Amino acid sequence: SPPNPTPKTILKLAAMMMVHLVRATTRTTLLLLLVVALVTTSVESSKQHVNNKNKGNLRRKTEDACLYCTMYILDVQMEDHSVHPDTVYRCELEDDGVMYTIEPPQSYLEANPDPVDDIIGARVCVEQGVADASTNLITSGNGVVRTVERRRHRQLAKNSGDSTILVVRVKDGRGTGPVVSMNQLEGAHFGNSQYPVSVVSQYRDCSNGKLRYRPASDIGAQGGVIEVQVDFSFEGANVYSSEAAVLRQVNARLAPYGKSMQSWDHVSFCVPGGSKTNTDGGGGWLAYAYPFGRTSWFNNKWCDSLSAVVHEFGHNLGLLHSGGDASASGVELEYGDQSSMMGFSYLEKSKPQMCFNAEKSQQLGWYNDKILTVNKFPWTGHLNPMVDYGMSNAHQVILKVGASTMIHFNAATKANRGTREYANTIIVSKNLGTVKGRSYTSNVLAALNPGGFIIVENTYIIEACNDAVVRSESSSRPSYAKMSIRWSHEASSCDQEVDPNEPGGVQTPYTPPSPITYTNACLDMVDFNFNGVRYNDCDDLARSYRNFISECAHPNSIPSWYCPARCNQCGSRSGGADPLAQTATAPIVQKEDSVRRRTTTTTTTNRRRGANQESRRHALGEGKVRLETSLREEEEN
Fold first, then answer.
1. 3-state DSSP call for residue 92?
2. 3-class secondary-structure state, position 116
3. Residues 195, 349 contacting (CB under 8 angstroms)
4. pTM
5. pLDDT tens across 610-621, in order?
6. Which of 87, 107, 115, 294 has the fewest C-beta atoms lying within 10 Å of its C-beta?
């Protein structure tokens, strides 16, 4: 048997075993470190490969070979107020929120004809899609773009409640920023001594406190405003292509705070001047936004324009344009309603103070409990202005007739004191939907002074009675206008007594008059049609067209054709012709047009910008809106 080992031998053997163990462990460790190094190198190489591709083409591909993005239609406002000639489609990538321009194939547009309902907000698959960061374009390898999920009216910004705004001032590669400073941007959006009326205060007042904005915080911002710098010049650059680089800089600036652009309801960008859109036409771009999206972009000096920012934020809220006279065209048709912030924008600070028209206000939902649908005629009642909505004794602030006709009292007071058109008149507007892919949805049909009326679709009459008052802003009572809505063959109901303290107005049944037999044995024509509307007799016609009675002396008047007894031309006209045997179409149309021009709306043939507003479309009435300053004695009594 081997001799018993001494303690010294045992220690020596233990030391040798430790050396072998350390050597083995070192080899294993080195092997592990070598594997880790190889994996790290592979990962870094892969990252570098992706980064290199980001500078050119980046193919984002899933198992079904789709590049997924969300569709938007960019809405551009031009400095010279021309209509931007292009429909610009943009698609937002899902991983970083960057917008790319996309040209959908004709097959996609035919399958999705409505820009608002079918395209905006839709999640699409661009088959074999490539997002090119250098050109800011998304293309499809096989020309197929298809809707995966149609999210109609998907809206990122909120119409009511507490909402947030991040403002971004952008400097170019030389460190040059817009002419509007950080302090000015803060004032224009959130208010200060230099900007007594701000975007926040105007939305608060127009919504009667229902939409409350607050600035972005906890990101090292100056009153909700941050600044980023890009490495290129905006001079001559395409602003759409420049947008992607700006968005990446903003996300990098926000990343240390655990934030991104998606952390706020609105993101307002102010960029230096000099950039262009795809086709600038006769002038540069003023601002643009994404309807139902969250971002708005402003060009240099326009960054602190109250109306421009309110207008573009309106697009984020889902509002489209407020157009002018439906008989106009081009820019007047698309932006011509200057009583609404969704018409033209103005290069002015803290003004003009005005809100939105009835169609836009209904869409925002701020006054839904005081919108009255008139579906039984005749109706007589009082209409209060939307700026008086919050008063307890204000009742209906919008009247809705049929599916698309809206009526509101455009009182120039409070948050609407600076309205640029149709002040203190009754505005009748119509929702037209989207037309040929353009983005206007409402047009003004008439602006009625007291005593004026309009015949809508040859079917019903909207009349502003001679009783209308605009009260002072300190009054405890709301302003009002008395209205009569009736079938076109009915007499005016303005004489109907209505209690202004009772909501809903008065609806009274209509009893057609009986035919009248004259002593000279001449009969009125019974159950005849006039301009496509059926009337019972001459008295019936005269009640709806009161001015016709005084025109009987004129040999070519319409009553001479239809009402020979009333005009004392029983059975004959000049030359002995029988009026009942005449063809009345030509003089009727001609006379009706001339009468309506005198009694309803006046439309100028010159629709150019800057034309005298008083010569534009207004309903002529015998009365004028009374202002409360002339009613002080009545107030005191």
1. strand
2. helix
3. yes
4. 0.74
5. 333 332 334 455
6. 107
